[in-house]
Amino acid sequence: MAEPPEGIGKASASEIVDWATRSFGSGAAFACSFGAEDMVLLDLIARSPVGARGAIRWFTLDTGRLYEETYGLMQTARSRYGLPLEVYTPAASELEPLLARGGPNLFYDSVENRKACCQVRKVAPLDRALRGAEAWIVGLRREQSTDRASVEKLSRDPMHRNIWKICPLADWTDAEVQEYVRARNVPTNPLHSKGFLSIGCAPCTRAVAPGEDPRAGRWWWETGVKECGLHSTLERGEPRAPAPAASAVRS
Ligand code: SF4
Predict the structure, then answer these.
(1) Which pLDDT score is estimated for 208?
(2) Over 70: is that where the pLDDT of 251 sits?
(3) Cys staple from 59: which of 86, 118, 134, 135, with CB 3.0 to 4.6 Å?
(4) Domains of the chain
């Protein structure tokens, strides 16, 4: 497994993407849910010498309950960037018993049911997607919610065999994301302009009011941590390996 150069924790997003794609190649997997941050990352990867060749993996989790706008963006992104997209879906052997037990909208009935649905539609497919990976790249930002305030650019992921978890945009502000999207004419989900700051499954996401927590629209009927298990260390408050100190990708 490639070790990160010292100081990558303070490197820029494009430097981190370049390092990750060069170091891990097909051992790196970019998890894309087609939010604005993920579109920025996709654009950065497509502009990196290694990423542009499709040498790292790009995957998404199709829960089967996404907005039509998200599927539309998925198509657009495939055409725009010309990179191979891996799509992971829930296993029928897990989904069918879940639907038989609780019906299609069981997630509204209890937190337990909501987590069971996320487990089948998201967490289990993610585990399959990361099988064999050495690192995964995600679009988490500290500003997205209080639960994500301590996200590191680089850490180990104890939920996935301790592989590297790389968050190149961890310290980006929302304004920086918007500026990148505008400057590079990056396609984004049209729902963002209708108040959807964080977009997940359609039945579990609503628009948020100005000034509201960006993730307040996710599972809005629940209180507490707004995570689905994909980033379980956030949910469980488990410690992360600290990122190495300053300046290295440049060396
Ligand atoms: S976000 Fe909602 S529909 Fe999507 S997997 Fe979780 S509970 Fe199921």
Answers:
(1) 87
(2) no
(3) 86
(4) 8-236 (3.40.50.620)
Q: Given ligand 1 and candidates 33, 113, 204, which is best to mutate, with the most ligand atoms within 8 Å of its CB?
A: 204
Does the structure show a pLDDT above 80 at 130?
yes
pLDDT in tens, 95-104: 999 999 999 9
Rounded to the nearest angstrom, the distance between the alpha carbon of 118 and the centre of ligand 1 is: 5
DSSP code string of the chain: -PPPPTTGGGS-HHHHHHHHHHHHGGGEEEE---SHHHHHHHHHHHHSTTGGGT-SEEEEE--S-B-HHHHHHHHHHHHHH---EEEE---HHHHHHHHHHH-TTGGGT-HHHHHHHHIIIIIHHHHHHTTT-SEEE----GGG-GGGTT--SEEEETTTTTEEEE-TTTT--HHHHHHHHHHHT----GGGGGT-SS--BGGGB----TTS-TTTTBTTT--S----STTHHHHHT---PPPP-S--TT-
User: Of these residues, 32, 118, 167, 228, which one is catalytic?
Assistant: 228
Residue 243 has pLDDT above 50, yes or no: no
**Ligand 1 center–CA 59 separation, angstroms:** 18
Ligand 1, CB within 6 Å, residue ranges:
63, 65, 107, 114, 117-118, 121-122, 200-201, 203-204, 228
Q: Catalytic annotation on 228?
A: yes
